[in-house]
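Protocol step 4 of 6: structure prediction from sequence.
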Amino acid sequence: MKPCANGTNTFVNCDLRHGIGQKQAGIETDTYLFWRNRYCEMKMLPSSCDTFVALPPSTEKPCIIFGKNSDRPCDEVQEVVYFPAKDYAAEEKVECTYIEIEQVAHTYAVVLSKPAWLWGAEMGANEHQVCIGNEAVWGRESADGEEALLGMDLVRLGLERANTAEKAVDVITELLEKYGQGGSCMEDECNFTYHNSFLISDRVEAWLLETAGKYWAAERIQAGHRNISNQYCITTKIDKEHPGMREYAKSKGWWDGKTEFNFATVYSYLTTARIESAGSRYCEGKKLLEQSSGHITAEVMMQILRDKDSGINMEGMFMTTGSMVSVIPTNPALPAVHYFTGTPDPQRSVFKPFIFVENAHLLKETSSPSFGPDDPVKKKPRFQSKPDRKHPLFVKHELVAAIIDAHKDRGQKIIESMRQLEKESLKEMEGVSVDEPDLLVDLFFLSVQKEMSLYSKS
């Protein structure tokens, strides 16, 4: 099998990772099918996604900085989309990825980074500067269940319906109680399922919410920094919880009802000590935050998301397919800036700014094609085929990524140009004002246009 550029003998080399095709990648069909089947058999062991939040005094300025890498199957397209606020009539429904649920009277404007095949999102923000990212978690409670709400659906629903981080916790847990969580989280016939943890922030604080089936615990974070990966990490500090969560654990024999209740110990396969073990992405991410504590900026968060040695910027069967960094000033008079890549591997992607303003335009260059009721995800049996979901920016980026892989010197110059473009954008955002919103309605679009122009010259 042809190895990846990082030297690992994994399923995907860099060409296939960007979806150019099996022949160019040098992988025969039978080999591809063999590893795809192994992919299913392994049920995607916990090995993906990292989410971070930094609050004063760990940030350089009085702001909250949120960041996430979305690590997903290597051939998956992630789009960045904007949906304006909207009012709905009574009795209206909303069709999520697998099930239909009751709609609310009003949804907030949201910007989302989402796998193109599903309704929900891996990460995003809303007009009230609530940010949410989710993580896959596995534990003693079985994740094999009927189709219900995906964790990504809950991210989007939380953003559409909550104007504070704490309210988002309430929204998500109420939906969890009413509809449950379940269904395949991958666009494939493999039944890849998991429970979810969520890191949620606003202008004031952050919340960590961890779930196991319908049971959950939540912890408020009011200062410092926090990161999560793919393990439970709420221990004894529990600020909100499912009313039956402890009794359920006791009935299952996971907790004796006498010792101090530790959510991670009780609901995990792994002990808290194992979560902290050397070499884990969680531990490495925590170290990176600690190294910059007191000086964390958007640039620092982007650098953390780009870190390959730690595994945070992932390569292989699962890779970083989209990244997000948000800068939320604690002063409500100042605008928040949300940066998205919309392309794989932040090391060779550009973070582009989005600001919520009235009449912001839709993000067409990072929106994937829509297939409506003919989408193979909507038809049962599901996932019998996989349509081309590449959006215009993805197509351009895919070609340039292949050049970067094939030509070291030329590739380095391209990356340097990308970094320069990003630095100019970051500098421009330092003095940005929403006093003239008409100048910001196309902010993200114009940034994408500059990036695509750079690619065309390359």
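Step 5 (inspection) to follow. Residues 166 and 207 are 7 Å apart (CA to CA).
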